[in-house]
Amino acid sequence: MRFKPSDHVKLALILCVTIGLTPYFPVPHSFEKLKWLLQGGNDMQALDYADLVFHNIPWLYLIVATIYWLNTRKKESLV
């Protein structure tokens, strides 16, 4: 069974809502880490960088899946 491009986008959205934003309160973890990094990243440990990557992989997957899905739709409409 092959996944359709729209299935990849749906999966990416689920991953973003779960892994990409947890913990939800008081501020999503990935936003907190990005803010910390943009302020200079003082006192960030290796684990903090790994955590930042882990929580942002779903967002990168969403971007790539959406671009792929849009390109696929564009090619299908031209045929």
Helices and strands in order:
Blueprint: H1 5-18, H2 29-38, H3 46-78
Strands, total number: 0
Query: Could you tell me the radius of gyration in angstroms?
Result: 16 Å
- Level of helix content? over 70%
Structural class: mainly alpha
Strand content: under 5%
Write down the overall mean pLDDT.
Answer: 88
Instruction: Give the count of helical stretches.
Output: 3
- Measured between the Cα atoms of the first and last residue, the distance is 24 Å
User: Which quaternary structure do these chains form?
Assistant: single chain
Please indicate the count of domains: 1
Structural notes for this entry:
It is built from 3 helices and no strands. It has helices spanning 5-18, 29-38, 46-78. The protein is an all-alpha fold. The protein has one domain. The mean pLDDT is 88. Keywords: Membrane, Transmembrane, Transmembrane helix.
What labels would you give this structure?
single chain, 79 residues, mainly alpha, 3 helices, 72% helix
Q: In a nutshell, what does this entry contain?
A:
This protein is an all-alpha fold and 79 residues long. The protein contains three helices and no strands.
